[in-house]
Amino acid sequence: MKKILLATTLLAASTGFAAAEVATSGSARMGLIFDGDDAFFTSRIRVIFKMSGTTDGGLEFGAEVRADQASEANSGGTSMDAGKVFISGAFGKLSMGDLDTASNELVGNVSGVGLTGLGDLNELGYVGQTDTSIRYEYTAGAFTAALSAGQIGNEEFSVAVKYSTDAYSVALGYEDGGVFGDEQLALGGSATFGAATVKAVVVDYSGYDDLEYALSVDYDMGAVAITAFYAHQDDFLGEEYFGLGAAYDLGGGAKVVGGIVSDDGDDIIADVGISMSF
After folding, report:
1. pLDDT, the chain, mean
2. Which of 66, 83, 154, 278 is most buried per CB count within 10 Å?
3. What are the start-end ranges of the E strands in the chain?
């Protein structure tokens, strides 16, 4: 991803200087999507601003926001629902803003398919937290721990741990929805076998009777990558989703991407087009 440097050096008070910069990156896509009944053109452009700096004492600080979310981040206050701000050092990393819970950050989801995500039906979902939220992360070697909380007064919190190496990872997370009364336990893992990477996530959500689970396989053949996933979501209906997708790397940040997702074999959605990263 190419970055364009907009600002570089800021002078500090009197004891030296601290380097600061604002960099931009972005993504775009164009193609076709089939919603099960009709086909449509689809396109999107996103620009991301990343700001970073270092204090004289070695603390790193920064912020990140998408251009289309700038007004939400600017108004921010006690309900910042776009962007994030952080400070980090030997003590770990402390972030505020529109954040994923600790469980969502470390456990995550299996891989999805398609140019547009096709409804993100590979995702099992997490108990959300109210913005402005806060998250603390600490990493020591292969081990990472995280703790997060929603806005004060809503009593939401999440805790998660993860152990990760180049060959495999395993993560466990717990979420409490506080005043909203939801609880969720999530277990996830991944393993790489040569060109194939397998991911799995299992979720026990207090609002559903059954466990939810998902599995994906990514197979990298150089310029061509293939992804397949299966997800069982309870949501009172017991839905099952199957997805298959592929991407061909054109070089320079452009890829031809397509995917197809089936809901129990009854409804089929699909898309194809070109994705671009800058």
Report:
1. 89
2. 83
3. 4-11, 17-34, 39-54, 60-66, 84-89, 92-97, 133-140, 143-149, 157-164, 168-176, 183-193, 196-205, 212-220, 224-233, 239-251, 254-263, 267-277
Given this model, what pLDDT does residue 210 score?
Answer: 85
Preceding omega of 132 cis (within 30 degrees of 0): yes
192 touches 166 (CB < 8 A): yes
pTM of the complete model: 0.86
Whole-angstrom Cα distance, residue 229 to residue 231? 7
Residue ranges covered by each domain of the chain: 4-277
Given a contact cutoff of 8 angstroms between Cβ atoms, the answer to whether 162 and 141 are in contact is no
* pLDDT, tens only, 98-125: 999 999 999 999 999 999 999 999 999 8
Say which CATH superfamily domain 4-277 falls into. Porin (2.40.160.10)
pLDDT for residue 264: 66
> 135-166: b or e for each residue (b if 16 or more CB lie within 10 Å)?
bebeeeeeebbbbbbbbeeeebbbbbbbebee
**Secondary structure (DSSP) of 72-141:** HHHH-GGG--S-EEEEEETTEEEEEES---HHHHHT------SSS-GGGTT-------PSSEEEEEEEET
Tokens representing residue 263 in the block? 């809901």
Asked if 103 contacts 125 with a C-beta cutoff of 8 angstroms, the reply is no
Please say whether the beta carbons of 72 and 137 come within 8 A: no
Give the list of residues 6+ apart from residue 274 with CB closer than 8 angstroms, or none: 29, 30, 31, 115, 250, 254, 255, 256, 257
Residue of higher predicted confidence among 11 and 152 = 152
Contact 111, 227 (CB under 8 A): yes
The pLDDT of 171-193, averaged and rounded, is: 93
- Provide the CB-side half-sphere exposure for 145 (13 A, CA): 5
